[in-house]
Design goal:
With about 270 residues, this protein is mainly α. It is about 30% helix and about 5% strand.
Length: about 270
């Protein structure tokens, strides 16, 4: 049973989500993305924009433009800069529809040619190409400077959180990759204070979806945790004090080590 206008199942019933074991990674990704408020707002905004084109994307039939404006069709999608920038969807499907063609929900980030600056690629332009395209006229001094410094270089579009590293295909790759990895780790640690890591727990994904759907219908955290036990509340483990002969005071225990201390809190050295 669908509870909201966004076509999400009854969060209290895990079976309402269907056979999630058959879902592909792209399907899981789409289920989370279609629940994002910015995705929903973006789709509705584009849907009423008369200047926005629309398309149908399907597995059997390649990318084509539909004959009528039917947003309830599976595979119906709108071009969205926001969805592409944040989630990798150049065409944004209707977030009210869960079962979409795989081709429609496959992100294009991995296929983005802008991430690969290969001089042999048709997607990569030189700095001179930008000057020629804009019709900028340069004097002799400017032309000489650009010829020496930039004119024959390839343009790399970088944002403030991105970096570019050059690799020489005429040299062994492993040493270059190692240096690049070390440099990237240092830069990320400098920027964020730590290395960022993504931990994946597929066995918990259905629970996460149910929590999002519960919150979408204004269920309280207490209701989610206590009544339906989707989330397990964290409780600090109880540490039983240990007593050791020859040590003046209880042992302080942790997950990693046990340290002796006096009742006053002063640290002591255990007897051998």
């Amino acid at each position: 049973m669908k509870l909201t206008e966004w076509g999400v199942p009854d969060w209290k019933d895990a079976t309402a989500y269907g056979d999630v074991s058959s879902w592909t990674f792209d399907r899981w990704r789409w289920e989370f993305c279609r629940r994002c408020p910015d995705i929903r707002t973006e789709f509705d905004k584009l849907l009423v924009d008369p200047s926005c084109p629309f398309f149908l994307v399907g597995d059997e039939q390649p990318f084509y433009e539909p004959d009528k404006h039917d947003s309830e069709m599976s595979g119906f999608a709108l071009p969205s800069p926001l969805a592409y920038e944040r989630y990798g969807y150049f065409l944004l499907p209707n977030p009210r529809i869960d079962e979409q063609p795989e081709q429609a929900i496959r992100p294009v980030i991995a296929l983005d040619k802008a991430l690969l600056v290969d001089p042999g690629s048709q997607w990569v332009a030189q700095v001179r190409d930008y000057f020629n395209a804009t019709g900028v006229e340069l004097d002799d001094i400017q032309t000489t400077f650009l010829d020496l410094a930039l004119r024959d270089c390839y343009a790399v579009n970088l944002k403030t959180h991105q970096v570019a590293i050059k690799f020489d295909l005429d040299q062994p790759l492993e040493p270059q990759v190692k240096v690049a990895r070390d440099v990237l780790r240092d830069l990320q640690t400098t920027r964020h204070g730590q290395r960022l890591q993504r931990r994946s727990h597929p066995e918990k994904w259905l629970g996460y979806l149910r929590v999002l759907d519960a919150r979408d219908v204004d269920e309280t955290w207490s209701e989610i945790v206590n009544r339906h036990a989707i989330l397990t509340p964290y409780r600090r483990p109880k540490m039983t004090p240990l007593f050791c002969a020859g040590v003046a005071g209880p042992m302080r225990c942790s997950h990693h080590t046990a340290q002796p201390r006096r009742a006053s809190g002063a640290w002591v050295t255990p007897w051998s």
